[in-house]
Amino acid sequence: MKSPQAMICLSTSPSISFLFYGLSILCVTSATVSASYGGNETDYLALLSFKSKITQDPYKVLTSWNHSFHFCDWAGISCGKRHKRVTALRLGSQGLEGSLSPHVGNLSFLRELDLGNNSFQGTIPHELALAGSK
């Protein structure tokens, strides 16, 4: 008969293997996101957070905002040529509805924000007001 300790080791071995596999996938995914976005996942995540707060997008302007394209190629986004950081977010008159994510304040190179003629609710996030004063 096997000892209880041996049985415990054998029964946890698949769990450890699964955990190792999961961590490996996480590391590879993180490295891929970092490499795909020029090491600047801050802008990428801020834009995805913005998109997550949009409840209506009647002209489907945000459909290009996905993993298939670099965020500098997304509709309404302009980036600096040298550092590939978001410098402009131009989504005026697109019929967008929702609220503004405070993570937009993480777009530290943002110089132009045009969200006019849309239907945003709530207040302007404090983080966004601070971003304009930098």
UniProtKB/TrEMBL annotation:
Official protein name in the record: Leucine-rich repeat protein
Tree of life domain: Eukaryota
Keyword Signal in record: yes
Organism lineage: Eukaryota, Viridiplantae, Streptophyta, Embryophyta, Tracheophyta
UniProt keyword terms in alphabetical order: Leucine-rich repeat, Repeat, Signal
N-terminal signal peptide: 1-35
Keyword Repeat set for record: yes
Organism in which the protein naturally occurs: Artemisia annua (Sweet wormwood)
Pfam families noted in UniProt: LRRNT_2
Ranges where the Leucine-rich repeat-containing N-terminal plant-type domain occurs: 41-79
